[in-house]
Write a structure and sequence with these properties.
99 residues; single chain; 3 helices; mainly alpha
Length: 99
Amino acid sequence: VLLALEEAENAMTAFVSEQSRRRSLGEASTQAAQAVELARAQYTEGLSDFQAVLVAERALADLEDELAQSDAAAATHFVALSKALGGGWDRGALEIAAR
């Protein structure tokens, strides 16, 4: 019983932690997209070189990659949580939990 409780607690902690990470990555990705637009505007106006645009786009691509990896990890953690709690969860529960 204690092992089952530990497994459920670890799965829940991992899932909640990953949800927090996903939110942070989503916010960072939004800000990086704004930085790309700013860098492009500065380049268009001749205020900076194209290197700034490339750096901003690279940062955005890296964040979007991390966000995709976090989505996969959150789904994996949800499956582990569902399994630890005995299963029986439907797909709608995953969609609600992902919010």
